Every structure is written in C-alpha cells, then in structure tokens.
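The material for today's practical consists of a large collection of protein records. Getting from the letters to the tokens is the skill we practise here. To make this concrete, we reproduce a full record directly below:
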Amino acid sequence: MFWLGIVFVSAFLVLLVGAITQAVWIQRHIRHPRTVMALIVLASLVAIPASLSIALAEPDHFVGWAQYVIGAQTIFLVGITVVVFALRHPTIQPPKVRRVLAIGAHPDDLELACGGSLARFADEGHEVMAIVMSHGANGGRDEVRENEARLGADTLEVASVSVQDFTDTKMATEMERMVKVIELAVELFKPDVILTHSEHDQHQDHHAVHLATLRAGRRSSTILCYESPSATRDFAPNYFVDVAPYMDAKVAAVKRHKDQAGKPYMGAKVLRGAAVFRGSQARTEQAEGFEVVRALSSGLGDL
C-alpha cells in the first residue's frame, strides 16, 4: 500500500501544480475552465491527504477503506482526462486560411473589443496579426503596458503583434506616419480582413486610427469596425461573431492588462454582459458586433 499511496500523492500533486501553473492555458483552451479548475483543486486537496494516509498505514490496516479510496481516485484521474479532452476547443483546418489584421490604438483595445473573435479565428486555423499603435503611456506605465499587450496577444494566440510608438492621446497629429505604418503591414501581410476602431468612438486616438486604417486599407476589400468601451450610441453593428465558447479566453486576455485593472470596463461581468447584449441582437448566446465598412464574401468566408 505504501508505494501505491505515494504514486497517487505524486499524481495529484502533479495535477494540482499543473493546473495552477497552466491556468492561462486552461482558460484559453478549455471550455468552462473555472469549473475544471475547481474540480481539480478540490479533488487534489481531498485526495492527497487520503493517499498519504494509505501510504503511512500499517500493513493490512484500513485495507478495505483504502481499496475504495484508490478506486475513487483512479476513476477521477481517468474522468478528468476525458473531460479535459472533451472540453478542448477544437483546432480546425479551414477550407481556406484567411489573414486577419487587427489594429488598435492602445494596449488592451483589441482584447476588450474583439478578443473573443481573435481567439476564435486563431483556433479555426486563420492567420491573425495585430498592430498596437502606442504604448499607452498617458494611461499607465508604457513599458508595462507594452509587455501586457504582448501577453494579451499570446493569450489569444495571435500569431504576431507589433507595438508602435505613436503619441498616446495625440495620434491625430501623426496621421501621415500612421498611414505609412499600416500601409506597410497591409502590403506585407496582405490581409483578407482588417479589423479597426469605429468611426463612432469618442476617444480621439480611436477615431484617428479608424481614419488612418481606411486610408491605408483603401484597396482592401473587407474592413470591419469593432466596438470599444468608448463607442458612442451611434455604433450600429451589422456583422456578428459568435464568441460564446471564447469568452473565458477573452476575459483571461483582458486580465493580462493588470496596469488597467481598476477601470470599470475591464471586469469580467461587464465583458460578458456586453457579449450577451450583442448576442441577443444576433440571436445567439454571446457575440461581438462589428460595423461593416465594406465586405467581400470571399474575404469573410466562414469567419
């Protein structure tokens, strides 16, 4: 019984430590991650002491009880493995890979506005590239926010993210240089779809990035505008992406922006509430809405 108890102690310790250290991976790849995490933690906290008792018990002592515990632990380990595989977001090879270029003014803009969509596109096998036009120095610590932009993109599994150095809150004064940066990205990446800020946004940088994107993407066939927390009441989405399976990934990506954690629109309840509202408009559970500047059906495909 000693070695069997040690084996189970080791197994549940590995499971518990793995769940804690890989929490972001679980949030990104597993549906209902909070439930899965809770099951692993609770079961480990019960199983580890029970397994130690078995390992330390005298020979033939508590044999009947030990057999039941070992049986229950074996069933749980097999069951949690099956559950994790069953709840994984499927990786899909689409009939045609689309290139999606997402452009945001500040770190956290993309995660807040279209993080669920970007996670979905990445999981569906499309190529996703992001450009963040500033470090967001006026709203926080620039070196911290730049790193958080990369962490957020990694959480969503965006293939690449470029963080530019345009002046936070004064991007309209650097319009020509912004246009050139976006033009170069369009030329090199050749996106099928461009995502950017909406015209109906009260933040001056968001509006400036919107205008720069339209100029730089003037030859692009499909441009969609996402909804930022600063969007005005005139924002009127007419294209929706079902993000219900990806809201946990979106919330996890937004949480990487710890520098902005105190802002009310960063909370999980606010993010989920907005998705439910847009989902009701799209007749689905949760969605992110976009305004279509123009859209070519072959560009959007099955996005």
Observations:
- Residues 2-87 form one domain.
- The beta strands are 99-104, 127-132, 160-163, 193-196, 223-226, 239-242, 287-294.
- The first strand starts at residue 99 and ends at 104.
